[in-house]
Amino acid sequence: MCEPYTWQVRYPFHGQELGALLVRRFLETLSTEDDRCAAEVAPVRLVPRFARQSAELAAAQALPGNQADEAALRVVTAALQTCGDAIARARDDGAGAGAGLRGGTVTVQAAGTGYHLVLSGARWTSDVQVSGVIDWPGRSGEVHAVLDVQVPGNLQGRLELQWPEGIAPSRANVRGSFGSQVVAAVAPAP
């Protein structure tokens, strides 16, 4: 159990030794000195906002050819965050079955250095259901997802998402449709 005002520092793979060295130096001298080697550690993306409804999220940025309105582009952001949540849970918990943040299920299978995730009605916001597959390559490589997205009684469609892992900043490209509206957008990767 952590005491108040303490931090947990996590570094993947061989970066554990690097992390310990940088933390030790900082605590002793309030300087990390030469920290160029920290670039080897993959960036950690943070959740932009914990929203209960997609309307509370920033809309994905429309690209040329997009026909989706701002509300639909907020649903795109919710779908991306659903992917990010599922991937984070897979990284922490490994293969097996689990739940989405606000409902639905996520089934995770190991695939090389990453995971193959199957979402069934997964919800990051209470109003957007996401089903489909995500292929996450691990800490580097290209993430691919094909998702069926539904806002009950309002909107449904299919989205294809892609973004690079292990670089910052990373942007997700989104293509697909909601009904007859073409979706072409970009947003921060989850």
Summarize the structure.
With 190 residues, this protein is α+β, with helices and mostly antiparallel strands.
Annotation keywords:
alpha+beta, nine-stranded antiparallel beta sheet, 2 helices, disordered N terminus
How would you sum up this structure, described in words?
21% of the residues lie in helices and 36% in strands. It is an alpha+beta fold and 190 residues long. The protein has two domains: 9-41, no CATH class; 54-188, no CATH class. It has a nine-stranded antiparallel sheet with strand order 1-9-8-7-6-5-4-3-2, with helices on one face. A hairpin with a 6-residue loop joins β4 (114-122) and β5.
Summed up, the domain count is 2
The helix/strand class is alpha+beta
Average pLDDT figure: 86
* Topology order in helix (H) and strand (E) letters: HEHEEEEEEEE
Low-confidence region ranges: 1-15
Let me know the number of strands: 9
State Rg. 18 Å
Largest sheet: 9 strands, antiparallel
H/I helix tally: 2
The strand line-up of the biggest sheet is 1-9-8-7-6-5-4-3-2
Distance between the termini: 28 Å
Strand content: 35-45%
Helix content bin: 10-25%
